[in-house]
Amino acid sequence: MDESLKHHNPNPILTANPLSKLLFWWMNPIFKIGYKRRLEVDDMYNVTNEDSSEELGKKLEREWHIEVEKKEKENKSPSLFKCILRIFGLHYALLGVIVFIEEVTKVIQPLLLGQLIRYFTPKSTITQTDAYLYAMGISLSAIILAIAHHPYFFTVQRIGMQIRVACCSLLYRKALRLSNKAIGQTTTGQIVNLMSNDVNRFDTAVMFIHYLWIGPSQAIFVLVILWIELGPSALAGFAVLLCLVPVQSLMGKLFAKLRHKTAVHTDERVKVMNEIIGGMRVIKMYCWEKPFGEFVAKIRGCELTYIQQSRVISGFQASVWTVGPRLLYVVVVIPSALTGVVLLPERLYICLALLFILTHTFLGCVFLAITRASESVTTLNRIKTFLQLEELDQSSIEDVSGLRPKPADCVVEVDHLTAKWDPKLDQPTLNDISVTVGPGKLLAVIGPVGAGKSSLLMSILRELPLTEGNVKVQGKISYVSQQPWVFSASLRQNIVFGNKFDGTHYNKIIKACALDKDIAVMPDGDSTLIGDRGVSLSGGQRARVSLARALYMDADIYLLDDPLSAVDSVVSHHLFEKVIKGMLRKKPRILVTHQLHFLKEADEIIILKEGQCLGIGSFDTISTSGIDFSSLLKSNEEEEKEKPPVVVYERATSVDHAHSSLQNIGSTFSLVSIGTEFEPDPIKRPEEEERREGGVGWWVYYRYFQAGSGPLKFSVLVILNLIAQAAYILSDWWLARWANMEEDRAAILQQVGSNNTNITVTDSNTDFNVAVFSGIIVAVFVFGLLRALMYFKVAVDAAKHLHNRMFKRLLRVPLRFFDTNPVGRVLNRFSKDTGHMDDNLPITFFDYIQCVLLILGIIIVVTAIIPYVFILLVPMCILLYITRRYHITTSRHIKRLEGTTRSPVFSHLSASLQGLHTIRALGVQERFCEEFDNHQNLHTESWFLFLSSSRWLAIRLDWMCGIFVTAVSFACVYLAKDLNAGLVGLLLTYAMTLMGMFQWAVRQSAEVESQMISVERVLEYSKLDTEVDLDSDSPPPPSWPQYGKIIARNAKLRYGPESPWVFQGLNFVINEKEKVGLVGRTGAGKSSLISLMFRMAEIQGSIIIDDLDTQKIGLHELRNKISIIPQDPVLFTGPLRKNLDPFKDSTDEQLWKALEEVQLKPAVDDLPGKLDSEVSEDGANFSVGQRQLICLARAILRRNQILMIDEATANVDPRTDSLIQKTIREKFKHCTVITIAHRLNTIMDSDKVMVLDEGQMVEYNHPYVLLQDADGYLCRMVQQTGKGEAQRLLDIAKSTYNSIPLEERPVLTKKSETITADDIYLSQENGDVTSFGANHVPQMQGGTEHSFSSGVVSNMSPSLDRSEENGPDINEDIDDSETSSLLTKQLEATPCRSSHSIDSSPEDEPPTETSTLHQHASEATYPKEESNEVSETTELLNGDHTDQ
Q1: Which among 105, 199, 206 has a CA at the least distance from the CA of 149?
Q2: Which of 471, 645, 799, 1133 is deepest in the core (most CB within 10 A)?
Q3: DSSP secondary-structure letter at 177?
């Protein structure tokens, strides 16, 4: 779907000649580009077919299915390893030939060295020509090693990459097929961890597997040579080696076990982090940073315990690796010396070189093979466990669609359906449901929260496993989920969804879904990028995009899970008429809805309760069947005849009466997205993750070691490293000295004869040499172990502290950060980058330090023996530095590209799992697999370049070292007169060691820098800007706020330094215990008022609560005192108890009481674990309505004086809604309550209604007062609900108004005291809607006069009469079913916000209204308390004017 993922840049390896492939010349062009400028995605080479994610994934999936079928017949467990072996085994086996040639060459090289050393012994029979030939042989063997080594490792690493890519592709394909039960058994975090950390084991495992057979072969060959040279004592060395291998293997197995335990905790941590990042808004508003911080710290602590144990094993392994060759020297050399074998230099250095090779093979490669193989086995088992999770069972669904049927044949038949989500539960989710929906039929599904409405759709979609009955589907299904799913892409991509673009069809859908006006004002039209989870769209816009996507699929059958709940009544009517009854009129439709006024239009209605069918039939049939349904479903005619409900003002004493009255009110008018304007979101989605340029600064290394150690610990670490290295070199020097003494002794014996009396003295020296050498080896082991253990302790502490700092800072960053950064990007820091700090970086860095110290020691020794070599070393070091610098410039770009191309893989995975039901319902799994493969291919391109660039450098360094070995060899022959055999042996051994060591050290330095980018990325998050302090120096008293009075003074809010102000200066007063409803169109600033109250963004001005300016207290001191029921209910995995009360402040009795008050006690009581029942990821085991009820229970438990409700009943049925309203009125009757309106009936009995428009408060008073103005904002909203509904809302407002004591009652305008719904509609018919009068002049920024009268906030500024300005006459009726765009046209034609000034002429404005306005503003006609409030608000407004 995302074409930006594809670019055309053919891979040059496909056309490169053999020599170019051998020397990696084909990489030269990318290095030239990288040296000149920063590499971009388009510079990367396309993946080859053999590396393609799609090809590899399909191959492995095919083999896995074959393996599963085969093993099922044999009743055995399938093996993923065998599948991988069948695909990659032959190619990998052939590479063993190359590595065998390399290892044979390594064994031949010491034999040539021995012959060359003989040239330097006294009385040597080797000629100078022979010596030069031996020197040439050593040089050629070095070049052969360079030629064989790097192509082999490049190819096996590429195979490792292919295995990883194939497994990731297979995992993703499996994830799309998981059953809902299986989804409950795994988490997004676990799948992310499998794809980010576990599969990386394959990259390293394949490098060393061949050494499992090469090691023993090489050992036999070496043993034969050692036996010839030293006799039986060679067996001692071999025995020690054989003992060391099991020790290493044991440590490897232990390491693998610890790795498995670590992975479990890493999975848990990544899962929790995924939830925290996704639910950060809720965490901040509930002040849950501390419990979640402690929870993550606990998991991280367990994880680090196992990591620390793993690092201890790594320390012992490093020590064994360092001391292993020396230990073999001891057990081979000392017995030989004590048994009388003359340790001549040529014999000694042949043996030492062979022992070094053997220990390198066994303790290095063989050990790594065992370790990595055991880790890979663990990974394979974890992947296999995931692959064996249950998939969707489609056997009980009869899909007879085959080819697309004719429209007249499309049908859904549900026959005696019984189904349950959890087979362990006795109560089925759906019980004996039968229904048929044919062509052109509309089935409405209604029922209370948790009745099984969504489950019925899930059963048709094959998501819910059936226990009895069957479902027959004939036709292609399209589905709209209850919670709209939007992924991170452009608006068009979200709608077209990868299908072929048809402009005519697309535009028709855009208009039908009322998206045309939204798109018109978007920055880039329908190409505007939508942030992760659709952060830049309002809830109503997300719902309409989701509906448009379903329409574009052009399916035969439509399943609509309450798509109208998130939009206002105008858009709701429009969507119902234009989409459900319009575009889809000829197709079978199943509509789950809580909006009961649409039921008359349904052909059939099914009522569900607790999974049972209470009734099924037409509207008329059900209304007359005796089912208690008619009370909720009355026609407009009946409504108009009915007596207005009595709603009393004193909620504290008459809650039940108020509730019983409201229970009959079926208003479902939604204000979430009134109008069709696009909400200008202050957040812009970045197109790609930012990448640093240049090298990793020294400050990163400094911060890394500072995090892990103090000055003293670091100094001790440095000293231990120097002592260990000194001991290491001293052991070699002592052996050289000892060999020279033996040579001198042999020469004397040869001259004088075997009776020489000096033999006794020499024996004494042998004992001394043995003792000193043994002491030095002990020192090498002890100091080597100490430095390893101390270094790994520092590394683990560094990873611990850096993670903790990053996490603490993440909890404190402003909310805007999470809106601008996708979940995958943030999660990448806590999965991949933290994994690097935990696992890869410590080992790589330690290896690099050892290499550097060893090279420095070698250079010092070599230059001390042959100072002339220094002449060659200087230019060679300069050339090495230039080569490395040239390489590292491009390598940095590649590594950072690898980091930024990795994040989208996880973001796409996360988004896919969120929209899994939609993806499967629309049948676009293959398309999403293709998208995932594209993301993987993009990452593979960067990883392929990373492998190639590493080998490009390594082969050049090895060639330079080959030149160095050649120079040293020939220099030794040339300077033979000045050198003895012992020093030549030491010199050439070191030179050959340098051959592999130098390139390895340079490559490790590049690898360390690459790994340090992870530290740099973590440090970046450790320095993010934070919110203000959570706690202040002068906290408010514990009893604050006692009353809950809220005053806003010139309050401004914006979401970022560069963003526009959402509020330009808000002024209002909310008295204690007042219930205030908040309404306004999309983008008016309703939800931003919550951000203002909670200080979630940058604020200017003042919000004063009980005479305390909230700007002067800490965030937690403020947020803890305000309860919130959010729009999107967020639950976290863990016990239900923890979701309700993470601080454990409430008793079980209080928790049960809260659940009972929100009608959830029976549902929770039925759960196996009661309060300790586990909540699955995203609360998937609860319905959306139940999740909202849990959020209400949280608010009840907090017992605060101020409550904010953000459209909290959007997804519950009217009955549950009325119960929630009753609970709110009972539990919060002594509190100040601010409700963002979803259904108008929920706020029409409020003390006041505040109307916002474009960040300005345009109306604020009792709803009945506001309804007196037929041109007012609230009145216009009521108009759109239909005549009968408008009368009912007016009656509610009037009832509450009449119940207010007379002396406290707000004053009405005389001409409107007896206004009715007919008056409201007549005002439209008579064209009065075109004359807003003085009450509806927009609130300007400056230079205007402010007035506050009859609840209307207005700034008086002269303007033309809109009726004259706009021209067209709009005196026409507005039908309920008209589109929102029609409403918008009407609003545009109506002078809503710029009309007449108070000083305008009588022609412009009737003087009666003007005088009335002056009277309301100046006369003391309000009762005392109300007058104080009005004067206070007016004073605020005037103060605002003065400031401006």
Answers
A1: 105
A2: 799
A3: T
Q: What are the tokens at 1369?
A: 């006459």
Instruction: Indicate the pTM of the whole model.
Output: 0.66
Cα gap 146→1280, rounded to integer Å: 81
Q: Residue 1048 has which token pair?
A: 């806003």
Give the model's confidence band at 395: pLDDT under 50 very low, under 70 low, under 90 confident, else very high. Answer: low
CA-to-CA separations, 129 to 116, 122, 268, 603, 973, in angstroms, rounded: 11, 17, 68, 105, 9
Token pair listed for 1135:
């016990």
* H helix or E strand, kind and range, residue 1109: strand 1108-1109
Closest by CA to 1185, choosing from 432, 606, 592, is: 592
Pairing type for strands 477-480 and 557-561 reads: parallel
Residues 1289-1340: pLDDT tens digits?
Answer: 888 888 888 888 888 888 876 444 455 555 554 444 443 333 333 334 333 3
- Quick one: angle between helices 128-175 and 367-387, nearest 10? 10
CA distances for 65 relative to 128, 862, 933, angstroms: 67, 60, 20
Give the end-to-end CA distance of the chain in Å, rounded to a whole number.
49
Q: Are strands 1202-1206 and 1232-1236 parallel, antiparallel or unpaired?
A: parallel
- Residue 90 has which token pair? 């032959």
Both tokens of residue 602? 């349904």
Sheet strands (E) in 1141-1240: 1174-1175, 1202-1206, 1232-1236
User: CB-side exposure of 797: number of CA atoms within 13 Å?
Assistant: 15
3-state secondary structure of 1013: helix
Q: Where are the alpha helices (DSSP H) in 829-924?
A: 834-835, 841-865, 869-914, 916-921
**Distance (Å, whole) CA 1336 – CA 1352:** 7
Asked whether 1277 and 674 are in contact (CB, 8 A), the reply is yes
Question: Which DSSP string do the residues of 541-575 spell out, in sequence order?
Answer: HHHHHHHHHHHHT--SEEEEESTTTTS-HHHHHHH
User: Cis peptide before 1041, with omega less than 30 degrees from 0?
Assistant: yes
DSSP 75-93: T----HHHHHHHHHHHHHH
| Burial status of residue 152 (CB atoms within 10 A of its CB: 0-12, 13-18, 19 or more) | buried
Put the strands of the sheet holding 1108-1109 in their side by side order: 1063-1070, 1046-1054, 1098-1105, 1108-1109
Q: How far apart are CA 52 and CA 825, in angstroms?
A: 24
**In terms of Cα–Cα distance, which of 361, 106, 109 is closest to 213?**
361
Exposure string over 176-189, b if 16+ CB within 10 A, otherwise e: bebbbebbbebbbb
CB 100 within 8 A of CB 119: no
In 3-state terms the chain splits into helix, strand, coil percentages (rounded to 5) of 60, 10, 30
d(CA 112, CA 138): 6
Q: What are phi and psi of 1365, to 5 degrees?
A: -70, -45
- Cα 747 to chain centroid, rounded: 74
Structure tokens at 775: 């002491």
**Rg value, the chain, Cα:** 39
Q: What is the pLDDT of residues 464-514, one digit of tens each?
A: 888 888 888 888 888 888 888 888 778 888 888 878 888 888 888 888 888
**Bridge partners (DSSP) listed for residue 490:** 529
CA dihedral 434, 436, 442, 447 (to 10 degrees): 0
DSSP annotation of 631 reads: T
> Is residue 946 within 8 Å of residue 895, measured between CB atoms?
yes
Q: Alpha carbon of 471 to those of 404, 432, 603, 1261, 1301: distances in Å?
A: 18, 12, 20, 54, 60
Q: Alpha-carbon distance 730 to 723, whole Å?
A: 10
CA-wise closest residue to 242 among 341, 142, 328: 328
Instruction: Compute the average pLDDT of residues 678-707.
Output: 60
CA 1257 to chain centre: 37
Phi, psi of 907 (to 5 degrees): -65, -45
